[in-house]
Amino acid sequence: MVSYLQVENLTKSFGDLVLFQNISFGIAEGQRVGLIAKNGAGKTTLLSILSGKEGYDSGRITFRRDLRISILEQNPVYPEELTVLEACFYHGNPVTELIKEYEACMATEGNPGIDEILARMEQEKAWDYERKAKQVLTQLKIRDFNQKIKHLSGGQLKRVALANALIVEPDLLILDEPTNHLDLDMIEWLEEYLQRTNICLLMVTHDRYFLDRVCSEIMEIDNRQIYQYKGNYSYYLEKRQERVDAMNTEITRANNLYRTELEWMRRMPQARGHKAKYREDAFYDLEKVAKQRIDNSNVQLNVKASYIGSKIFEAEHLYKSYDDLKILDDFSYIFARYEKMGIVGNNGTGKSTFIKILLGEVPLDSGTIEIGETVRFGYYSQDGLQFDEQMKVIDVVQDIAEYVELGNGKQLTASQFLQHFLFTPESQHSYVYKLSGGERRRLYLCTILMRNPNFLILDEPTNDLDIVTLNILEEYLQNYKGCVMVVSHDRYFMDKVVDHLLVFNGQGDIRDFPGNYSDYRDWKSANEQKEKEAAKPKEEKKQRVRTDEKRRMSFKEKREFEQLETEIATLEEEKRQLEEALCSGSLSVDELTEKSKRLPIITDLIDEKTMRWLELSEIES
Questions:
Q1: pLDDT digits (tens, 9 = 90+) for 543-555
Q2: What would the DSSP string read from start to end of 1-47?
Q3: Is the full-model pTM beyond 0.90?
C-alpha cells in the first residue's frame, strides 16, 4: 500500500499537561481509521496538528507529495456574507483553486494558458463541481443554496462544511465528529456514501455503529500513547479488554515485587552500598509500572434518584404550530413510572420544541399538561453549558452538593462522584476555562445528576461526549430508578437505554413504537419491502400484456425516431466543432466564454436525446 501519512515520535503538551508523548503511526492508501480517546486526551488537537493549524513540541510528520487532503473541523468558520454555494468554493482545495484560475484566465485579455487549464479542468472533472456540491448539500437537507452563511444555525453550518469536505473527493479525508448535527437519515446516507468510495479516512466520532460500519481500523490514545487495532469497533472492544487485562496483571505483579524491592531500598545506605547499581535503576523502572492507574471503567455508579410517585405527567389534546409548521396535532400521552422513552425524527420535526413544551418553556396553542407533585426534572439541554470560567471543576459541583446519596445510608463525596465521570483528583482542581469541549459536556452532565432528579430529560446528550463517558452514562441510565426521556441521533446509545420510541414524522404526525431504534429500523425496512412487493404484480401484469402482444411504433413515434437520429448527428457535430474551437487558442474572451457555456448544454442534450432514441429503438426491435 502507498503511504499517505507518517507520524514519528510526536509529542504535544500544554504547560504541564502532556497530551501524547513520542507517538508514531502511519496511514496508507485505502485505510479507514477511527480515532478514539477520552475527552481531553488530545483527539481534536492531533487532527489540528495534522491539518497544520496547531504546532507540536517534537517529532516529525510526513505527507505523500501532492496528496489531496480534505478536513472537516469541529467548529468550521466562513465569512458571513457568503452564500451556501459560495462557501463550497471558499476553502482552498485543488479543484476550487483551479476553477478560480480558470475564471481569472477568462477575465485576462488573450486568455494566457487556457489550453493547459482546460485540459486540467477535464482531468479534475471541475465542470461537475457545482452539480456535485448541490447533490451533496441536498442529501444533507440544505436546499436553499443562496441562503447567507450568517443566517444558518450551527448544525446547518457544520453540514455545509461536511459537504465542502466530501465534494472534492480527496485522497485523505479527515473528519472531526461528522455525525454531530445530522439526523438519522443523514447519518445512514453518509455511512453508505463513505462505504461506496475508496477514500482514505481518519475520523473522530462517538457514533459506535458508524465506526463499526465505516472504519476497518481503530486507533486509541490512552495514557499518552497510541494503540492500533486492525479491525472495526467490535473487534477493538474485544482486543482492548485483552490489553487492559494484561496491563492490570502486569501492574499487580509489579506492585507485589515493588513492596519487596522497597524494603531493600529503605535499608541503610551502608547495607546496600556494595550492591549493584543496576538493581537501583531497575527499582525506579518497576516503580513507574507499579504506580500506573489500574483500569476502573467497570465500576458501577448507582446513584439513588429521589422518590417518584405513580402520577408522572399527563398530556391531553396538545396543539402547537408555527405558521404552517405543525409540531403537535391533538397529541395525548400518559407517562408511566420508570418509563424510558426515546425520541427520534428528522431535524425540524419539533423534537426539542416538544421537550420545552413539556417543561413549560414554550407555551402551547391549546391543551393541558398535568405534572405529578413528586416529579423533579433534570434537563440536559443542547445550550446549557453556562459556567463561571474562573471556577475550579470541584467547586462547580460542590456548589450544588457536597455529597451524592447512593441509598442504604451510603454516600459519595463530590470528588468521588467526579472520578466516576473520569475527572481525576488532579483535573478536579483545574479551572473551567482549561477544559475541552467534551470535558465541559461531561461536567455539565455531572451538575445535572448531582441534583438527584427522578425524571431525566436528555436532549442530544451524546454530542461531544467520548465513548468511555457514553458507556458510563448508558450503564447509569440502565440502572436508573426514575423516568428517562432521550432525544438522540446516536443509534447505539438509544438501543442500550430506551424501551420504546416516539417517532416524529413531521407536521404533528407522532407515532409510538414499542422497541428500540434497531427494532424500529428493521420494522421500517420490512414495511418498505412489503410495499415494493405489493406493487410488483401490477407491473408484471402490464409487462406480460406487452410481451404477449408486441407493440409497434405509432406513426408519430416513427417520425420522432427518424428526427432524433438527425438531431443527434447535428448536435455531435456541433460538439466536435466547439471542442476544436476551445482548443484552438484563437478565440476572443467573449467567444471563449460563450462556447464554454454552450458545451455542457450540448452534452446534456445529446444524452437526453440518445436516451429517448434507445427507448424507441427497443419498441422497433
A1: 444 444 455 565 5
A2: --EEEEEEEEEEEETTEEEEEEEEEEEETT-EEEEEE-TTSSHHHHH
A3: no
